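Hi R.,

Here's the chain you asked about this morning:
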Amino acid sequence: MSKSGYNQDHKYASLLHDLSYEAANMCVQCGYCLPACPTYESMGNEAQSPRGRINLVKMAAEGKIDLQQDLAEPIDLCLGCRACEVACPVNVPYGQIYEAAKEVITLQQKEEQKKRTAGMKIRDQVLNNVFPHQNRLRFLGNATWLYQKTGVNKLAHKLKIVNKVSEPMGQFEKILPLVESPSKRYKFGDVFPSSGSKKMTVAFFPGCIMDAMMSKVNRLTIELLQSVGCEVFIPKGQNCCGALHAHQGSMEEARKLAKANIEAFESSGADYFINNAGGCGAILREYGHLFKEDVEWRARAQAFVEKTRDITEVLVELGPLPFKKDWDGVITYQDSCHLRNVQGVYEQPRELLRSVPGATFSEMEGSDRCCASGGIYNLIHFEESMKILDDKMVKAKETRAQTIVTTNPGCLLQMKLGVERSGLEQTQALHIVEVLAEACDIQ
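And the predicted structure, written out as tokens:
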């Protein structure tokens, strides 16, 4: 290797060392994380386990292995579900190690263009030129509504047009929920009064995928919040939470998005900042970590974190909900990894589902284990994702549930695809907000 090549490699190893080495050294290699890791279970390879990945990060930080040749693939195959953090007896911050590795690997790929594939370039274009822009995402959402409304989607399914471009995208497009009419969309800057006596004012974070493709769930979220005494404000100036960017190693872009959200929400004067997507909520609650080295933004980020809540937390706190209809059938619940493992929210969704009149709640074995959606993991690592999903659906079938409930858009689409793949014709997958709104007769 040339001297200049060595210096470049040393530069990235040194950066990885600064960002992750102290945290990685906390790992005592005990192996308690192994049973909790879905990729270790499905692949049976130590390099695809949390302790294996941590060891590789340490070796790369010490300059003993190559970041791209030896570390990039094991890190890329990690779902980032963070179940290992919950299982770890010494509280190793695996999420920080994982994101540091992602950041340095991505930085090297961007600076050394020859190491970037066409897929990486397309991914970056989408992340940087679509997700941060509300109007572009809403245009895509409205176009999808028209595509479904006119029946063009049925012809596309018959001819498998999307499948010819990408088999994974074709399968997910087929089970995409019906997009609600653009005429029913809320506007940024809108204020929705509480039903009855006002208990608090909350600011709502609609997200990007939820806002574009699942705006009905967001509308129902607003109406549920109103029903328990919340005045709901949707701040202008907010945008994508930055989770997809952070998970792909684009940390600077994630921080830019975070700054815009902090500014939009801190001026709202709201008691809580509410979201209904486990993945979004996880990074919103980690804005303090994003700015831990930034003196100017650290306190503002932490103040934002302290007000951030998942919809289920607020509904439990301000409930009971005004139920009006009985639910017919058995309900089971699949945890959103980031809601459970990062935000620590797992009892509230279950409490709400158990309170639905007429419903029978059946706990799924392994409901706390990842469904392998993982942001865009199920698109770029489709076969690995489906192996985990198919096992998940075996457990879902054992519950005899007619409804599988989750709390994150990626998980919801994954469950819908799982239902399709498993031939569970009498089973539906819904967001928890849809179930609660139906039982409250909110249409």
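Confidence is low (pLDDT under 50) at residues 1-7.

Let me know if you need anything else.
M.
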